[in-house]
Amino acid sequence: MLGHHVLGQVAALGELAASRWDLAQGDWVVVEEYLPCGQCAPCRRGRYRLCPDTDLWRGGRRVGLVPVSEPPGLYGGNAEYLYLSPNSVPHKVPEGLAAELAVWALPLGNALDWVLGAGRLEAGETVVVFGPGYHGIAAAAAARHAGARQVIVCGLERDQARLELAAALGATPLTLSGDHLVSAIGDLTGGSMADVVLDLAASPPETFTDAARLLGQGGRLVLAGAKSPPAASVDTSALTRLTATVVGVRGRAPQRVRQSLELLRGGGLGLEKVPTETVALSAVGTMLDRMAAGTGPDTPHVVVRPWQDRPARERS
What we know:
Elements: E1 6-9, H1 15-21, E2 28-31, H2 41-44, E3 90-92, H3 99-102, H4 105-118, E4 126-130, H5 134-145, E5 150-154, H6 160-168, E6 172-174, H7 178-188, E7 194-199, H8 206-213, E8 215-223, H9 236-241, E9 245-248, H10 254-266, E10 277-280, H11 284-292, E11 302-305, H12 312-315
Parallel strand pairs: 4-5, 4-7, 5-6, 7-8, 8-9, 10-11
Antiparallel strand pairs: 1-2, 2-3
C-alpha cells in the first residue's frame, strides 16, 4: 500500500503506545516512513534512516512499501487508516499548526537536514538547487530561512510553473544547463560560484556533472536524487583543487522533523504560498497515471485526503 509521507489523527491507541510516544486519541501526528529494528548501532544512536531494515536498496521495509498481505495490511498512507507498528516513528504536531502546513513536515525536515546538516550552510552563502519538486521548493525555503545570500533553483523548460513558485519564495529561477548554466552562476555570484549545491533531480545523470561544475572554493555538493541511469562524469581533479565535499543523503534525522514542525508553526517560510492539489482516495490511481504520463499538476505539492469523498456522517 503506497503513501510514505503521512499526517493523520490518532483514532485509537493502547496504554503502552500512549506512554511510549506521549500521544493521546485525537492528537495529530506526522509519521516518518522508517520502520527501524531498534536494536542495531544506528538505531541506538537515533539514526533510523541508516538501519539495515529501512534500506530500500536492500529490500528494507518502510511505510508505503509493506505488502498488504502482511497483517494488518495497513502500512501505507493512501488509506483511511494507518497501523502504527511498535517500531513506528511518529511526531506530535504542535498546537497552533494547521494540517495544511503540517503536511510539509517531512519534505522540510529533509531539506533542513540536507541544507544545514550535509550542506553546512552558513549565513551569507550561495545555494544552488537542482530540481523544483517539493523537496527543491522546501530546500529553497530552508536556505532562505537560514540566511543564504542567494538561492538559485534550476529546472527544465517544462518546470516553469514550479520555478515561479521558487521565485515567490525569493529564489532566482534558471532553466539553463552545461556551459550556459556555469556561465550564469558565475555572473550571479561575481565569479565565486556556489557554496552549497543540492542535486535533487532523479534524472538525468548529467545534472550531477553540472552540479559539480558550479562549486566554488570549499563548496559542498549534496546528492539526494537517485540517478537513473546512475553513471555520471565528474572532474575529480577540480573537486580536489577546490577542496570540495561531495556527500550523499537520504531522509533526515528525527530532530529535523521536530525542527520543521516548529518552524512551520512559527510561519515566515513562505510554504503557504505553494498551491496544494488535493486528491480523494478514489482518485489516487488517476493521479499516479497522470504523473507517470508527465501530465500531472503544475504544483509539486499533492495531498491525498482519504476521507474526502466520504459523507460527513461516515467520518465521525
